C-alpha cells in the first residue's frame, strides 16, 4: 500500500485572520511563505474538526440503502447515502449507528470502516469517514431533519444505472459506492460473519 509522504516542508503561516463569519461558516485568511521564499495569501473554511460519517447500509448481500433528501446548495433533491456530523463525545461507529437510526429507521450490529476522505483539502479541513453497515435491525431515533427522508433500496448488481441517475451526483456518495463495491466483491463472506466483529479496513 502506498504511504502518504509527510516529509515535504509545509509553508510557514505568517498571519491568520477570520475575514468572514456566518451562523455555520467561518472564512480564514492565511499569509503563507513557501520553502522557496514565495509568499501568497490563501483563504480556507474553518470547520469544527469533528468529522462526519457516511454509511453504506446492506440489509442483505444484494441490496444497499440510500436516501433522497433536499440539498440547499443545488436547490434540489439528491440521492445519496445516510450521513451526518460526529457529535461531541461520539466515536465514528457510534455516530454511524445514530445517523442510520435517525435517517432510515435502522440500526446496525456490525460495521466495517472503509476509508476516510478529505472533502476539499484546498479550502476545507473536513473528513468524511465511509462505513459499511451490516446486520440491520429496526430502530428509529429522532434527528434534526426538517422532513422525513425517502428511503430507497438499490440492487448492488445495478450500480451502473445508479451512477447514471441524474440525481446521484454527490462525489462523496459516488466514492462510497465504489469503495463499498470493491470491498464487498473482495470479501464475499462478510455477510456470513456474526455480529460484534466490526472491522477497520483501509482501502
Describe this structure in words.
- This protein has 203 residues and is of the alpha+beta class.
- It has 2 domains: 12-45; 52-200, Nucleoside Triphosphate Pyrophosphohydrolase (Alpha-Beta Complex), CATH 3.90.79.10.
- It is built from 3 helices and 11 strands.
- It has helices spanning 92-103, 159-164, 171-186, and strands spanning 12-21, 26-33, 39-45, 52-60, 63-71, 76-80, 83-85, 106-120, 124-138, 150-155, 199-200.
- Strands 4, 5, 6, 7, 8, 9, 10 and 11 form an 8-stranded mixed β-sheet that branches.
- Strand 4 (52-60) and strand 5 (63-71) form a beta hairpin.
- The longest helix is centred in the C-terminal third of the chain and has 16 residues, at 171-186.
- The N and C termini lie close together (9 Å).
What's the structural blueprint in terms of helices and strands?
Elements: E1 12-21, E2 26-33, E3 39-45, E4 52-60, E5 63-71, E6 76-80, E7 83-85, H1 92-103, E8 106-120, E9 124-138, E10 150-155, H2 159-164, H3 171-186, E11 199-200
Parallel strand pairs: 4-9, 8-11
Antiparallel strand pairs: 1-2, 2-3, 4-5, 4-7, 5-6, 5-10, 8-9
User: Using only CA atoms, what is the Rg?
Assistant: 19 Å
The H/E string reads EEEEEEEHEEEHHE
β content, as a range?
35-45%
Low-confidence stretches: none
Summed up, the domain count is 2
Secondary-structure-based class equals: alpha+beta
Q: State the CATH topology of the largest domain.
A: Nucleoside Triphosphate Pyrophosphohydrolase
* First-to-last CA distance: 9 Å
Q: CATH class of the largest domain, please?
A: Alpha Beta
Number of helical elements: 3
Amino acid at each position: 500500500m502506498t504511504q502518504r509522504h509527510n516529509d515535504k516542508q509545509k509553508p510557514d503561516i505568517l498571519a491568520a485572520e477570520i475575514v468572514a463569519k456566518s451562523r455555520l461558516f467561518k472564512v480564514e485568511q492565511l499569509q503563507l511563505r513557501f520553502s522557496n521564499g514565495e509568499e501568497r495569501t490563501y483563504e480556507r473554511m474553518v470547520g469544527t474538526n469533528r468529522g462526519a460519517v457516511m454509511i453504506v447500509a446492506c440489509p442483505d448481500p444484494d441490496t444497499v440503502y440510500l436516501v433522497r433528501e433536499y440539498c440547499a446548495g443545488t436547490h434540489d433533491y439528491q440521492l445519496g447515502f445516510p450521513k451526518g456530523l460526529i457529535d461531541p463525545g461520539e466515536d465514528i461507529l457510534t455516530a454511524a449507528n445514530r445517523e442510520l437510526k435517525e435517517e432510515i429507521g435502522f440500526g446496525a450490529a456490525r460495521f466495517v470502516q472503509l476509508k476516510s476522505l478529505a472533502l476539499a483539502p484546498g479550502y476545507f479541513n473536513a473528513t468524511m469517514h465511509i462505513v459499511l453497515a451490516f446486520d440491520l435491525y429496526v430502530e428509529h431515533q429522532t434527528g434534526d431533519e426538517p422532513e422525513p427522508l425517502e428511503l430507497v433500496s438499490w440492487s448492488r448488481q445495478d450500480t451502473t444505472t445508479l451512477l447514471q441517475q441524474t440525481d446521484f451526483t454527490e462525489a462523496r456518495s459516488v466514492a462510497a459506492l465504489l469503495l463499498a463495491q470493491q470491498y464487498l466483491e473482495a470479501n464475499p463472506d462478510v455477510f456470513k460473519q456474526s455480529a460484534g466483529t466490526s472491522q477497520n479496513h483501509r482501502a
